[in-house]
Structure formats: C-alpha cells, structure tokens
C-alpha cells in the first residue's frame, strides 16, 4: 500500500476520473468483504450461534466507521510522530479536507483514499471474531472493537503504510495488509482466546459447521471482494502494477485451494467443501502482502506453501489446547506470516519496488526486514489484545454465563434465532409437537449430531 508522498511542483498530479472511479469500485468491493466474512463465519458455527456470528462482523461496520472519521484516519495517515503514530488536525472529523484535494502523489481525492482505507479498518477486527465464536458478550465485543482499533489497528496501519511509519521507512513490503490486517488480527485473536478460555465442550462435543453452503457463499464473496482489496491498493491503474496484483491474487488463491485439498485427501481421505473454502482464504491472505512484488510463478509457490502450512496449522489448537473456534490463527496469522516472509524469497525487484528476494539475487536483506515487520506486529498485537481482553473480563466480563452459552447465544444476546421452523409441516407431526431433542436435531441438520445417542449439537 503506497502512502502519501511529496512530489515536485512540476510533477503534481491532477484528478483522474478513471482512477477515482476505479478506486470507488474497489472501495465498494472491500466493503463487501465484511458481510462476506459474516456469511463465511456464520456458516461455520452451530445453528444456535449463527446470528451472533453475523452480528460480530456487522457491528464493526458501525463502530469503526465512526471512529475512523473522528480520529482513526488522522492516527493512521496523519503527520508522523516518531514513526509510531500520525496526527493531523485537518483529518480529525475529516473536517479540513477539500472535496477536490488529492492524496499526496496520486490522482484520487483524499476522501476516496480515506474511504478505501476505512474498509480495511472495518474488516480487520471482524476477522478476530471468528476465534471467539459462541461465548462472548456482544457489549464486551463492541467495546473491545473500539479499544482495539484505537490502540492497535490505527497505529499499526501507520507503522506499515503511513509516511514516516517506522516499518515503512525500514523498507518492509506489505502491499495490502499481510502484517497490518492479517497478522494483526490473527495475533489479536490468539491473545484474546488465551484470556477468555475455551468453549463449553471443546474437544468433547461435536461443533460442526451448520451450513456449508453458507460457508462457500461467504468464501466466494470474499474471493470476489479481495480483488478490490489487493488490486486497489496501488491507488490507481496507470502503470500495470495493480493488474499484476489482480492476476497474482487469482493465481495464489487457486494454488492454495488445490494444496489444501491435496493435503486433506492424503491426511483425511476426502476433499471437503470446508477445506476448499479455507484453502482459498489462506491463499488470499498469503498473497496480500506479496502479490505486488512477485511473478505469477512466485504467486503459485506462495499460494501452495500457504495452503499446505495453513491446513497443517489449523489442527494445532487440538494439540496445544487453545480454542480458535473458526481457525483465525491457523489461517490469518499463519497465512499472513507465510506471505510476508516469502516476499524475502520471491520479490523480483521489477514490479512494486526494486527490492529483490533471496531467489532473485537479493540476499537476506529483504527477508530480514520482512521478519522484523512480522514479529513486531505479531508481538504488539498479541500482548496488547490480551491485556485489553483481561481488563474487560475483569471489569464487565467478556463471556456469557455457561448456561447461556449452552442454550444458545443468539437468543440470549439478540432475542432471535437464525431459522424459524415453527411453520414447517402441519398437524401433530410438526416440529412444535416433537420432543425438544428431536426438533433441535432436525433443525440443525444431520451434521449436527455426531454420537449415536440423543446428544444434540445445536
């Protein structure tokens, strides 16, 4: 993501209607990714948690949008202060920006750049929510979002993309968010779940996805929206770099999906729809930081490595006992680390920048920079997120009571259920007349029950 830069007067850009229109479309595509994520996560949870999972993403659209306008854009992209944060009075409330004022060095208005970056800020905390399924109070989650974007996301975005940000000045390459978005969200998810603990019945009760078609729909919409996320991050369409990123996004995603499915077939004996969807997302995550600096062949390698390693990583939660409900750590943290580090191997020096990776004669210099960015963001987000979760847990409580978790967080937190079967069937054979265990089983679908007795996974 190129930050604002200073140009000579003779080179001062003028407003480009084509680039502005292109960026508005990309902004809309990135906005779509948050409800797409809601569908993706919503299908992966049990039926009794569907609405809560959807709402944990949707509420980010409300909270982060307001904070971004008030001060978030200023912190992330204002005048640098010590390489850590930015601040510009004109950006507070977006009140000092002219409607035709251009983002420095580019041909799009500041308002368009601010809107595009807003969608990144909205999506990132929504990514965290998948690790916390079934068990977090909605009010606590909403407050966590507000605190987290203020203390973690806005400053980290400045580190990586803001003019003067310390990682940007160091030369860390992150085209569209491997560190600022995916490692940031994945590390935060790990920090929070280590504090709040496991779901009731973790590793004991079946917790299968209630709607794989919903998962596939969400994954497809994410893939679609990701073209705006990645290709739009060059902030224009004049020199072909965005086109390279667009192609590499498709290539790496395809390679990751195939690699994940191959691993599944060898390891578990089947090609699953959940594996296809998760593999695609892993590829999208991994190419996000790297796609502007590698070739299509490099994108295939990056995608394949990410698909394989993320498929292996999602099982670590059972080995180490942390309850990453929907594999945010296994996909976003691991995928972000893989993609960011592989820049140090596959950067060609001929697209986004002149920095070359190890395989193109660049030595270990760029790999060292990438590793610094990866582990700085990982450590900061992990520690601060855990502290925030601990503080909220000790003051207002992060988790719903155990009985409410077992009975269903949708009813407790939202007074609604995702699916209403009260009108299904007729006569005395309707679900309303059936025993509760049978009704719950049929409502949740055959995948909801794993044992031969009457235990219900609703």
Automatic annotation (TrEMBL):
A Pfam family per the record: Ammonium_transp
Biased composition (Low complexity): 433-449
Domain Ammonium transporter AmtB-like: residue ranges: 22-419
Chain segments annotated as transmembrane: 20-41, 53-71, 108-128, 140-161, 181-200, 212-229, 241-263, 270-291, 297-316, 328-351, 371-392
Cellular compartments annotated: Cell membrane; Membrane
Coiled-coil ranges from the UniProt annotation: none
Membrane topology reported for the UniProt record: Multi-pass membrane protein
Keywords of this entry: Ammonia transport, Membrane, Transmembrane, Transmembrane helix, Transport
Region (Disordered): 420-458
Highest rank taxon of the organism: Bacteria
PANTHER family in the record: AMMONIUM TRANSPORTER MEP2
Family (UniProt): Belongs to the ammonia transporter channel (TC 1.A.11.2) family.
Protein name: Ammonium transporter
Species this chain originates from: Streptomyces lichenis
């Amino acid at each position: 993501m190129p930050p604002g830069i200073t140009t000579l007067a003779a080179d001062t850009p003028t407003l480009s209607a084509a680039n502005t229109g292109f960026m508005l479309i990309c902004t809309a595509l990135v906005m779509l990714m948050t409800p797409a994520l809601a569908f993706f996560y919503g299908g992966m949870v049990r039926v009794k948690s569907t609405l809560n999972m959807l709402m944990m993403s949707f509420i980010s659209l409300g909270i982060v949008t307001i904070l971004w306008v008030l001060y978030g854009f200023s912190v992330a992209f204002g005048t640098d202060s010590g390489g850590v944060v930015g601040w510009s009075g004109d950006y507070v409330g977006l009140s000092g920006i002219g409607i035709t004022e251009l983002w420095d060095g580019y041909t799009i208005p500041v308002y368009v750049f601010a809107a595009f970056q807003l969608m990144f800020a909205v999506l990132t905390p929504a990514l965290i929510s998948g690790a916390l399924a079934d068990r977090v109070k909605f009010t606590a989650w909403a407050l966590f979002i507000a605190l987290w974007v203020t203390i973690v996301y806005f400053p980290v975005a400045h580190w990586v993309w803001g003019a003067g940000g310390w990682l940007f000045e160091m030369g860390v390459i992150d085209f569209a968010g491997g560190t600022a978005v995916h490692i940031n969200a994945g590390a935060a998810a790990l920090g929070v779940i280590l504090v709040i603990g496991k779901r009731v019945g973790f590793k004991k009760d079946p917790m299968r996805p209630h709607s794989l078609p919903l998962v596939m729909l969400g994954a497809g919409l994410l893939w679609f929206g990701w073209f705006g996320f990645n290709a739009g991050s060059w902030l224009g369409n004049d020199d072909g770099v965005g086109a390279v990123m667009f192609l590499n996004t498709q290539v790496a995603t395809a390679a990751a999906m195939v690699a994940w499915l191959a691993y599944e077939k060898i390891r578990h004996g089947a090609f699953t729809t959940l594996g296809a969807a998760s593999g695609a997302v892993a590829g999208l995550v991994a190419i996000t930081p790297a796609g502007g600096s590698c070739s299509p062949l490099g994108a295939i390698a990056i995608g394949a490595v990410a698909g394989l390693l993320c498929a292996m990583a999602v099982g670590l939660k059972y080995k180490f006992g942390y309850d990453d409900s929907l594999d945010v750590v296994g996909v976003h943290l691991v995928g972000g680390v893989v993609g960011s580090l592989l820049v140090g191997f596959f950067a060609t020096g001929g697209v986004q920048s002149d920095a070359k990776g190890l395989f193109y004669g660049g030595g270990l210099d760029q790999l060292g920079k990438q590793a610094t960015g990866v582990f700085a963001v990982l450590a900061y987000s992990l520690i601060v997120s855990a502290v925030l979760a601990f503080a909220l847990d000790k003051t207002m409580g992060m988790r719903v009571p155990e009985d409410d978790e077992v009975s269903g967080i949708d009813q407790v937190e939202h007074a609604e259920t995702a699916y209403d079967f009260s009108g299904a069937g007729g006569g005395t054979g309707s679900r309303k007349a059936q025993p509760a265990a049978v009704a719950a089983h049929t409502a949740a679908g055959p995948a909801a029950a794993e044992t031969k007795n009457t235990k219900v996974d609703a």
